[in-house]
Design a protein that fits this description.
Length: 124
């Protein structure tokens, strides 16, 4: 009886150790972020390069829906592939330039949630 309890306790301990292991093995990015947020030191050259790349990506993703090509729209918009981007360009060619960003909802395949998700990436 005592041996059975010991075996059960060891099994539970090993199972708990196995469950807690993934939380201890955090991804390198989250470890780096945690270290950066806790340190008061100046950013390194690599950190500056990553920040510069992210800011250039943010600046480059804003596109004009009345002048952008299908490839530019597909690259800049979240959840829009080349096919939907081509539908936007075709709609624009057929009906003229968009007067507001909400007019994108008139394009087949473009719902209100998809338009709202991409408002930050688009201009007129």
């Amino acid at each position: 009886m005592k041996r059975g309890i010991k075996v059960a306790l060891i099994t539970v301990a090993l199972a708990c150790a196995g469950l807690s292991f993934p939380t201890l093995a955090a991804s390198p990015a989250s470890k780096t972020q945690a270290v950066q947020t806790t340190s008061d030191a100046k950013p390194t050259t690599q950190t500056k390069a990553v920040a510069a790349a992210q800011s250039s990506d943010d600046e480059g993703t804003r596109v004009n829906i009345n002048t952008a090509s299908a490839e530019e729209l597909a690259h800049a918009m979240n959840g829009v592939g080349l096919k939907k981007a081509q539908a936007i360009v075709s709609y624009r060619d057929e009906y003229g330039p968009f007067k507001s960003l909400d007019d994108l909802q008139q394009v087949p395949g473009m719902g209100s949630s998809l338009v709202e998700r991409n408002l930050a990436h688009l201009t007129l």
